[in-house]
Amino acid sequence: MDFKNEKDIIEYAFNMGCSNCQIILTEIEKVQISLISVGVKKVKNIIRKYNIQLVYENRYINLSIESDEITDYSKLIKYAIQHCYYKVDDYQINEVFKSQLYSDVDKKKFNTDILKVALDKKNEIEEQFKCKVNTLVFETTYISKNCIRINNIYTNNSTYITAGFVAQKDNKLPCTYLIDNFSGNIDSIDSLVLKSKLEAKDIIIMEELKGKVKFSYNAVKRLLEYLVNMFNAEYILNNRCKVKKNFLNKNIFNEYISLSINNIYSFDYEGVCSSNKYLIKDGIILDFLNNIRTQKIIGGTAGDVKVINLTNDFTLGVSDLLLIIKKKSNNEYNVNINEIDGQETIFDLRTGVISIVCYGYEGNNKNELHKYRKSIDLIDLMNKAKVCSGNKLLGNYNVPEFIIEI
């Protein structure tokens, strides 16, 4: 069906049984943004965007279409109406349809507490990112998890960026922020700026990491990813790891450190009953990552067989990992490390030495990004750690921030 103007679309929607229809046409200057120390890099593109909002039998439907994407709106509206009982693309806050947000969604009452979480995050983004959030979007894929996403953020000079997050009321999952093509579990809006600077290669020299160094949640998580490999029984039995078989029940780490696995599955991929266990408790190594074969040779408990999604190969790994450091710092530091570069960092399992390449700032000065490097024994690094914050869940790793003196 050929639509000559917006009135034709509205008339067709009412003929299909919709009780309300509104079309918002926006012509925006869409900009891909990279934040750099001297300003903003932009790639401009003018687009026309149709936002068609429908109400059909007390179901809210929102369709966002760029003008060059589709010409046959009738098929799109038909499809949306036919499938709105099973999956609605998103729920957008709008004064006309706001009441629809609080009706039953797929026979589940929408939790308005989640809206409060979103508004709190909206205020945080506006304050720290110096911009205006004009849209909140609810997505059905997140409704069951009580999650919400923010997008369509306009800066003060009316340029357009895409940014957002997934927030959860009980905070069991970390917030996920997005900007341009970036996505990942990051702990603050500052990390958005950091990632954009990395993309813009806004780094001049590499410096030796020294002094009192604070490692962010993301950086600590990355260190744990290296550390947990040292407990892989396959590596230990093949003499590919600094941790040895005779380290079991030995005090190898600082007495203030504990590292535990909290299995979320009843069985592993060998069918072995999975149970929570300590790899390290009060500095003593109590267990390894085992399958049935390695457990019989090396000791400890089995139940740690996982599957690599891309290849379906079996491997030894963890589901949930909790790091506890009981020794506290005085929160004084001169270097703040936000990210560890996983591509440039080299970890030698045999010696336990990690050659870290990381990014951060001097103190709280976030105007100039620094690139650092340091080679250090990973066990020694962990033994120097003094916690400076409470724990936070990033993916399946529950970690604190900590400070070490190098």
UniProtKB/TrEMBL annotation:
InterPro entries: Metalloprtase-TldD/E_C, TldD/PmbA_sf
SUPFAM superfamilies on file: Putative modulator of DNA gyrase, PmbA/TldD
GO molecular function, one term: metallopeptidase activity
Protein's UniProt name: Metalloprotease TldD/E C-terminal domain-containing protein
Pfam families (alphabetical): PmbA_TldD_3rd
Stretches assigned to the Metalloprotease TldD/E C-terminal domain: 212-329
GO biological-process terms attached to the record: proteolysis
